[in-house]
From TrEMBL, chain A:
The lineage of its organism: Bacteria, Pseudomonadati, Pseudomonadota, Gammaproteobacteria, Pseudomonadales. GO terms for cellular component: plasma membrane. Keywords: ATP-binding, Nucleotide-binding, Transport. This is ABC transporter related protein. The keyword RNA-binding does not apply. Transmembrane segments: none annotated. Residues 32-272 form the ABC transporter domain. The keyword Transport applies. It comes from the Bacteria.
Automatic annotation (TrEMBL), chain B:
Residues 359-378 are annotated as: Disordered. It is found in: Cell inner membrane. It comes from Marinobacter algicola DG893. InterPro entries: ABC_transp_permease, ABC_transptr_urea_perm_UrtC, LivM-like. Keywords: Cell membrane, Membrane, Transmembrane, Transmembrane helix. One of its GO terms (cellular component) is plasma membrane. CDD domains: TM_PBP1_LivM_like (cd06581). The chain crosses the membrane at residues 12-32, 38-58, 65-87, 127-151, 158-176, 206-227, 255-275, 295-318, 330-350. The lineage of its organism: Bacteria, Pseudomonadati, Pseudomonadota, Gammaproteobacteria, Pseudomonadales. This is Branched-chain amino acid ABC transporter, permease protein.
UniProtKB/TrEMBL annotation, chain C:
It is found in: Cell inner membrane. This is Inner-membrane translocator. Belongs to the binding-protein-dependent transport system permease family. LivHM subfamily. GO terms for biological process: amino acid transport. PANTHER family: ABC TRANSPORTER PERMEASE PROTEIN, BRANCHED-CHAIN AMINO ACID TRANSPORT SYSTEM PERMEASE PROTEIN LIVH. It comes from Marinobacter algicola DG893. GO terms for molecular function: transmembrane transporter activity. The lineage of its organism: Bacteria, Pseudomonadati, Pseudomonadota, Gammaproteobacteria, Pseudomonadales.
Length: 274, 378, 550
């Protein structure tokens, strides 16, 4: 087994590559700060001089028509897409553009995908176990043992998302809505400082939507939450501050009422809805 | 402890029980039965079975990366062969001055090529401990470098398969060259003894057979230990939804690299045990055909089960032995047909059949690990 | 085909020697047969008789004169006589004094023939024959003299070839006749050759101006002469020769580069042909067809089969093979798609394994049904030989044709993709299968059609390959990995990528070969691609945009 040990040494050699997990510094301002961000794909400008800040503990809704750049914006924050220009800061200490996805995730940004993505070949319990905020390097993962406190924590989250009875079922057999919940549960396990939630209520029943709204509002304050959603009713039910994206930049920002009365917004977006 | 966990697991206990029972029975039949008895197992058969066990270990290694990590390696034969060459170099040095040319240091083929001294990379292979470490390190290092480059760039799926195939193909061409110093076309052969035991005696052959069985048992337990640990679940996570795993904070490339390296080392051990039993190692072990054949053993046995890989390797190779003896021309038809039939009609392999049988009686409580086809999109 | 004198063999063994003797004999016989057609009536007053008798009778010191007399007579049979003389086969019958050609000088009785008519005179005891003596000096000159004979031929190609033969063999005795020849010669390239041949002699004599003539020549003998001159005692000559050599070296470098490029493009065109069908199927369906190499093999065997059907018409058979090879491979492709691949939708790795199984079956099928041995596919006459650009550069025609064929196939595929409904649908499915389907494109039909198209192109590649390599059951295997590399290198779903990747990989391979050797060059290219994929995992020309990001 000495060989395996040696491999673990290999990981230690690379340790300097993994960022020292320091608390995100939000004493001097917002938790997320994006300035003059530009991205284009093959000449198509997906993000166009985007400027946005998210305050610590804020619950922010982002709306906008298709192709407004909502998903691309999340890709940039989580390190999936590198912008052509601009800067993105997490707190005042961490430049997100120099980090990769796992580093950003470890730092405390959780993301729920537009299409619910869970590990279908694993059970609900195991899905949550993997999401748990622990040492995620290779060798510690290999050695990880299930402790009572972990079990407890998973139990709490299972209760929150209402999947206790399905804990030993494969995630693959869950309904669409249940998968959404499981994914949200995985975000909770990560204990992130900032949650990015892409279309959380797609495919949910009215009741499930209410519970989701409840959950997200209860999170705000302790954590910052950014919700991208198409469902206006849902946005209205949770929103304190709304940002409207259009053609890759911010069109309007403010309370739901302010935004929905903005003539520009009515023209490009709400005009069709109302 | 991750390594001892499998020992408490029912399926591993059954596997080890069957394996050790088979080892004991073969040994008993070989040693205790008179040669004219119908039950007598000849030394030839013992070596043949030993060869199957080597293949089984290789198949387990392939299943570890393909079944649990979704990496279809079409180049695992390369790690097998490199492990084999490391062992072959040791056996070559053991010949000493008993070779045709009687050179105390240089192997025959080097004398034949008029080489004056041993190349630097042959140094140390006269010592068993060094050679045995190289059996692990050489394939491990290759896998480390190759995997580091590939996984860092997120080369996956069909691309990765093709690249691994190119890797073993390039190595085959390289080892065919005399200048490489590995005996070129003919490879390494004419071995005499291993650790002082004459390779041509029945006792040594039996010893190698048992050693292979134990190696398979250890390899199986290591793999089982990995796949039942949290890392194993992370592997499955990386296999089915790579992006999700990444956004949870896992370094997918590191996970892939670790498992890939472990798998390559196991393949190297399999190759090292293979060489003294068949008595030769040459570049044909690098051939892409061999590597892809290994994959079909795993596919037949059942992906992502480990024990399925063992069943598949033994079954296919037994069939091969029978076929090539009775009607050699038909073997490639049979093998080709097997590829098609398994992928189209038996996607979960024999293990899948067994599992669905068992499911009829009782509900499955094992970790279900059926590979899912959905991919993460974001 | 007429048997030809064998070129000098590197390794002599008994068999080789016997073979070359046999060949010279047949050559002689043929020469004699052609002489037979001459009217035999005028034998007595045949001027040849006097010439031969003269050669037989003169003392050694005047043999040259006798030979010159034969040469200047312009007699068409002169070559046969002099060749026989040079080979010790010209003898005189002791009794009659008649000069004869010895056909076979083995054993006690020799077979002889009449040099004037070519008529076989049966066997005669060797004791009754008196060999006409030749000394080594004369023998040395004979070669040049024979070449001189050809310089008078009517075919300018023969004249040029003989002038070329003469390079480096000119001696004092030939200078004058050559100069006279130069006066008469009208063909520019023949003149050029003669001038060069003379210059080589003159440089040896220390003539400075002759160096200028040679400075423009790429012939190896011209270089040999200059190299000689560099070592001469005359400093002016050595200096000038050195400059001339430098300028030749420069030109040679260019030519060598051109040749490497040609070989590279040729190899590249083969790779493009082999890979482009794969690129189409991979691009559209996302599956790697491991049996692609065997589809190529089928195309090659179709050519072979066609030539068996049309014996003696290799050219026609080859032309018929183009549509036939396409159809055979396309049909095989459709069968593969319908019987296996369609059941493995969305499981690319399984498809890879299943098609590999098919490739094994196809290979073994060919081994069982046809033969495990390689089959010979005849190269039609218009495709053999080479296009001579200059002394240092000649392009083999078959490769040139294959290169052109590859470009035509590529252009045709481009047209299909750009201008036809199928092409539009294929591109749509490649970019976004789900969307294309929802727009009413029947993806299944597109799959079948593209698979047939890709497979058919593989068949075409096989037809082309049959002209370059052996046709055997392993033909496909040898190209499959290279084809993958081309597709991976070029990027999926982009025909231009495949073209550029194929041609550049071929060229890189050829560039590396001189200093790395064929095997090492191949390894280097493979390693290069493995590393390249790290940098650009989606190849040279990746598909961009949102659809490709997922």
């Amino acid at each position: 087994m000495s060989i395996i040990e040696e491999l673990s040494n290999r990981d230690r050699v690379f340790e300097f590559l993994t960022p020292a997990v320091s608390p995100v510094d939000t004493r001097h301002g917002p938790i997320l700060y994006m300035e003059d961000v530009n991205v284009s794909f093959d000449g198509f400008r997906a993000i166009n001089n985007l400027n946005m800040t998210i305050d610590d503990g804020e619950l922010r809704c982002i709306i906008g028509p298709n192709g407004a750049g909502k998903t691309t914006m999340m890709d940039i924050i989580t390190g999936k897409t590198a912008p052509d220009t601009g800067s993105v800061w997490f707190g005042s200490r961490h430049n997100l553009l120099t980090m990769n996805e796992p580093e950003i995730a470890t730092l405390g940004i959780g993301r729920k995908f537009q299409k619910p993505t869970v590990f279908e070949a694993l059970t609900v319990f195991e899905n949550l176990e993997l999401a748990m905020a622990t040492d995620k390097r290779v060798i510690p993962t290999l050695r990880a043992a299930m402790k009572a406190e972990f079990r407890e924590r998973i139990g709490e989250v299972l209760e929150t998302i209402g999947l206790q009875d399905l804990r030993n079922q494969l995630a693959g057999i869950l309904s669409h809505g249940q998968k959404q919940w499981l994914e949200i549960g995985m975000l909770l396990m990560q204990k992130p400082r900032l949650l990015l939630v892409d279309e959380p209520v797609a495919g949910m029943t009215e009741q499930e939507m209410e519970r989701t709204a409840e959950l997200l509002t209860s999170l705000a304050g302790k954590q910052s939450v950014v919700v991208v959603e198409h469902d206006m009713g849902f946005v209205r039910s949770i929103a304190r501050k709304v940002t409207v994206l259009h053609q890759g930049s911010v069109l309007a920002e403010g309370s739901m009422d302010q935004v929905s009365n903005d003539p520009e917004v009515i023209k490009v977006y709400l005009g069709e809805e109302a | 402890m991750w390594l001892t966990r499998p020992l408490r697991e029912r399926s591993t206990q059954i596997f080890l029980g069957v394996l050790f029972a088979a080892l004991a029975i073969v040994t008993f039949l070989h040693v205790a039965m008179p040669e004219d008895s119908a039950l007598y197992v000849s030394a030839y058969t013992v070596t043949l079975l030993g060869k199957y066990l080597c293949y089984a270990l290789l198949a387990v290694a392939v299943d570890l990366v393909w079944g649990y990590l979704g990496i279809l390696s079409l180049g695992h034969g390369a790690f097998f062969a490199i492990g084999g060459y490391a062992m072959g170099m040791y056996l070559m040095r053991q010949i000493g001055d008993r070779g045709t040319y009687g050179d105390p240091i240089l192997p025959d083929f080097m004398v034949f090529l008029n080489w004056q001294e041993l190349p630097w990379y042959w140094l140390g292979f006269d010592m068993a401990w060094f050679a045995f470490i190289m059996v692990l390190l050489a394939p491990g290092l290759l896998a480390l470098v190759f995997g580091f480059l590939a996984f860092r760039s997120r080369v996956t799926g069909v691309y990765l398969s093709i690249i691994t195939q190119a890797l073993t193909f390039a190595l085959m061409l390289a080892f065919f060259r005399n200048e490489m110093g590995f005996g070129g076309n003919n490879g390494l052969t004419d071995f005499r003894d291993i650790l002082g035991f004459n390779l041509r005696t029945d006792a040594t052959r039996l010893g190698l057979f048992i050693a292979t069985g134990i190696a398979l048992a250890i390899g199986y337990v290591i793999c089982r230990g990995i796949v039942t640990s949290k890392l194993g679940r992370v592997s499955i996570a990386c296999r089915d939804a790579e992006a999700r795993a990444r956004f949870l904070g896992y370094r997918v490339d590191r996970v892939q690299l670790f498992v890939f390296v472990v798998s390559a080392m196991l393949a190297g051990v399999a190759g090292a045990l293979y060489v003294p039993q068949v008595g030769i190692i040459n570049p044909s072990e690098f051939s892409p055909l061999f590597s892809i054949e290994v994959v079909v053993w795993v596919a037949l046995g059942g992906r992502a089960t480990l024990y399925g890989a063992v069943i598949g390797a033994v079954l296919v190779n037994y069939a091969k032995t029978v076929f090539t003896g009775v009607m050699p021309d038909a073997w490639l038809f049979a093998l080709g047909g097997l590829f098609v039939l398994v992928t189209v009609f038996l996607p979960k392999g024999i293990a899948g059949l067994l599992a669905s049988r068992r499911k009829g009686k009782q509900d499955e409580q094992d970790t279900p690990t059926a590979p899912s086809t959905t991919e993460a999109t974001a | 085909m007429l048997p030809r004198l064998s070129p000098p063999q590197l390794a002599f063994n008994r068999q080789d020697i016997i073979m070359s003797i046999l060949r010279s004999l047949t050559l002689l016989l043929i020469a004699l047969v052609s002489v037979l057609s001459l009217p035999a009536s005028a034998q007595e007053d045949d001027p040849g008789k006097a010439l031969l008798n003269n050669l037989a009778e003169v003392p050694a010191s005047r043999v040259e004169e006798a030979i010159n007399a034969i040469v200047s007579s312009g007699d068409e049979r002169a070559r046969g006589w002099l060749e026989a003389y040079g080979n010790n086969r010209l003898s005189r019958i002791d009794d009659t004094g008649q000069v004869v050609i010895v056909l076979n000088n083995r054993g006690r009785d020799w077979e002889i023939a009449n040099p004037l008519t070519g008529e076989n005179m049966g066997e005669m005891s060797r004791r009754e024959l008196d060999r006409i003596a030749i000394n080594n000096r004369i023998r040395g000159q004979l070669e040049g003299i024979l070449a001189m004979l050809d310089l008078n031929a009517t075919d300018p190609d023969v004249r040029e070839a003989s002038a070329q033969d003469m390079m480096g063999k000119v001696d004092a005795s030939l200078v004058e006749p050559l100069e006279a020849q130069l006066e008469r010669e009208e063909n520019a390239s023949v003149r050029n050759r003669i001038e060069e041949a003379l210059a080589i002699y003159r440089v040896g004599e220390g003539n400075l101006e002759a160096v200028d003539v040679l400075a423009g020549s790429l012939h190896p003998r011209a270089r040999a002469a200059l190299n000689e001159a560099v070592r001469s005692d005359n400093p002016a000559l050595a200096d000038k020769a050195e400059q001339a050599l430098a300028s030749i070296e420069q030109k040679l470098k260019l030519n060598r580069a051109a040749e490497t490029l040609y070989f590279g493009l040729s190899l590249g065109s083969v790779l493009v042909l082999a890979a482009i069908g794969l690129a189409i199927t991979f691009g559209v369906m996302g599956v790697i067809n491991m049996a692609h190499g065997e589809l190529i093999m089928l195309g090659a065997y179709t050519t072979w089969g066609m030539q068996q059907l049309l014996p003696g018409q290799p050219g026609l058979a080859l032309i018929f093979s183009i549509p036939a090879g396409f159809l055979v491979a396309a049909t095989a492709g459709i069968i593969i798609e319908r019987s296996v691949i369609q059941f493995l939708k969305g499981r690319p790795l399984e498809t890879l394994l299943a098609t590999f199984g098919i490739s094994l079956i196809l290979q073994q099928l060919v081994r069982t049904v046809i033969s495990p041995q390689n089959r010979t596919v005849v190269t039609p006459e218009w495709m053999s030989g080479s296009l001579v650009i200059n002394d240092a550069l000649s392009l083999t025609l078959n490769r040139l044709y294959v290169l052109a064929f590859a470009l035509i196939v590529f252009a045709a595929l481009m047209m299909i993709m750009r201008k036809t409904r199928l092409g539009l649908e294929v591109r749509a499915v490649t970019q976004n299968r789900a969307m294309a389907r929802s727009m009413g494109i029947r993806a299944t039909r597109v799959d079948i059609m593209t698979f047939a198209l890709g497979s058919g192109v593989a068949g075409l590649a096989g037809v082309a390959l049959s002209q370059l390599t052996n046709v055997g059951p392993n033909l496909g295997q040898n190209y499959i990995i290279d084809s993958f590399m081309v597709v991976v290198f070029g990027g999926v779903g982009n025909l231009w990528g495949t073209l550029i990747a194929g041609l550049s990989l071929g060229t890189i391979n050829q560039l590396l070969e001189p200093w790395a050797g064929a095997v090492l060059a191949k390894i280097i290219v493979l390693v290069f691609i493995i590393l390249f994929i790290q940098k650009r995992p989606k190849g040279l020309f990746p598909q961009k945009g949102r659809a490709a990001e997922g």
